[in-house]
Amino acid sequence: MTSASDVPAIEVVDLTRRYGHGRKAVTALDGLSFRVAPGEAVALLGGNGCGKSTTIRVVLGLLAPTSGRVAVFGGAAGRPTARAATGYVPEDASRLPSLSGRELVDLFARLRRVGPRAERRLRVDEALTRCGLAPAAESRRVSTYSRGMTRRVALAAAFVGKPQLLVLDEPTSGLDPYGTEEILALLAEHRRGGGTLLLSTHDRVTAEGACDRAVVVGRGRALADAPLADLLAGDDSPSLLPLFRRTDRG
């Protein structure tokens, strides 16, 4: 008998995704398979166009597989139960609506059907405080935020639904070392609470600071799937250095 703890947080099986039809069809994913256990943190690594973002969209239920299967906590990706268990932080959070930080997080709480009103207000307060947004910042339009503040309010919007799984696309892209440390601290807190992470990144500091394991994706397939430390140290694994952007960490 399978217990709840035996059910993967994410299960990707022979996932294929094509764009277009006929001779003009482009294969973004070609039989990709991997699993993420509850409480685990996994990085998707690979060059531009390798299929990382497509994988994330399928896991979120924003794209349907051409073939194969993706499950989130045992349910098909995109189903209401899977979406309720998942929070998402996009790479380009600058396109968030022109609302204040509080209004934005409250909007996501409403979309998550957090209620009644008193409970929703409490959850919004908790999410904003957790992500270090001061009352003065809460009332400002998100369009006036710095890049680091924008990432923090996007995380607050994800956290307000109390997701078991957090999916992030390049969560520290463009941040300075201090901003990166702040985001990594929030991700570590999520894991201490039993949460699961799936993130794509080109940044070695982010990968090593947030994740235990990495799935290296190339040409839409898993080229390697192993503990991140082993991949970085092993002579038999594909070199990961070209996958990481040069970053100045002082």
Index terms:
alpha/beta; 250 residues; 10 strands; four-stranded antiparallel sheet; 9 helices; Rossmann fold; six-stranded mixed sheet
How does this model look, in words?
The chain is of the alpha/beta class and 250 residues long. The chain has helices at residues 52-59, 80-84, 101-111, 117-130, 135-138, 147-159, 177-192, 204-210, 228-233; strands at residues 10-19, 26-36, 41-45, 67-72, 75-76, 86-89, 165-169, 196-200, 213-218, 221-227. Strand 4 and strand 5 (75-76) form a beta hairpin. Helix 3 (101-111) runs parallel beside helix 6 and helix 7 runs parallel beside helix 8 (204-210). Mean pLDDT is 87; it is low at 235-239 and 245-250.
Give the SSE map:
Blueprint: E1 10-19, E2 26-36, E3 41-45, H1 52-59, E4 67-72, E5 75-76, H2 80-84, E6 86-89, H3 101-111, H4 117-130, H5 135-138, H6 147-159, E7 165-169, H7 177-192, E8 196-200, H8 204-210, E9 213-218, E10 221-227, H9 228-233
Parallel strand pairs: 3-8, 3-9, 6-7, 7-8
Antiparallel strand pairs: 1-2, 1-4, 4-5, 9-10
Helix pairs in contact: 3-4, 3-6, 4-6, 7-8
The overall pLDDT, averaged over residues, is 87
Derived from helix and strand composition plus strand pairing, the structural class reads alpha/beta
Query: What's the number of extended β-strand segments?
Result: 10
Distance between the termini: 52 Å
The SSE string, one letter per element, is EEEHEEHEHHHHEHEHEEH
Shape: globular
**Relative helix content:** 25-40%
CATH superfamily of the domain at 1-85 and 165-170 and 196-239: P-loop containing nucleotide triphosphate hydrolases
Largest sheet: 6 strands, mixed
